[in-house]
Design goal:
Elements lengths: L8 E6 L9 H5 L5 E3 L12 E3 L11 H5 L5 E6 L1
Antiparallel strand pairs: 1-4, 2-3
This protein binds iron/sulfur cluster (SF4) (2 copies).
Length: 79
């Protein structure tokens, strides 16, 4: 018997100290997986974006990375 297994690993890396907390990535993510810290600030003094996906909902659409004006988001995937 053949068992087909598919493993999809997605990593959304947000460079904390490059982020200026503009929130564009938060608005564009169709799955609502990015939030802006409240209270925590980065080296530049801005609140910053954080990716969280405990249920594996990220589709790797990369819209967050594309819209970021500061190129602070990197998507890594392996299938
Ligand atoms: S890759 Fe797409 S689904 Fe995943 S966090 Fe970015 S915008 Fe959201
Ligand atoms: S779009 Fe870029 S700069 Fe703006 S909050 Fe998201 S990661 Fe930070």
């Amino acid at each position: 018997m053949k068992v087909k297994s598919e493993i999809k690993l997605i990593e959304v890396i947000i460079k904390k100290d490059t982020c200026k907390g503009c929130g564009l990535c938060v608005e564009v993510c169709p799955k609502g997986l990015i939030t802006i810290t409240s209270g925590d600030i980065n080296k530049k003094g801005y609140p910053y974006a954080v990716f969280g996906d405990p249920e594996g909902k990220c589709t790797c659409c990369a819209q967050c990375a594309i819209i970021c004006p500061d190129v602070a988001i990197e998507i890594r995937k392996s299938v």
